[in-house]
Amino acid sequence: MKNRIEEIRNAKGIRQEELAKKLGVSRQTISSLENGRYNPSILLAHKIAALFGMTIEEVFIFEEE
What we know:
The chain is mainly α. The chain has five helices and two strands, in the order βαααααβ.
């Protein structure tokens, strides 16, 4: 699953550390999400989307394999 977290985060001027703190996760988790090494739980995906004021579908791009 691809995502637009880094793109959106940069557009809003939020550092990885800030986003991690707001979401209650580590900066490494944010880095792994942005690099596609980690797929979030539905709860974390919802928190990320809500924090950005977006829908999950606007942040995460589901691609069938």
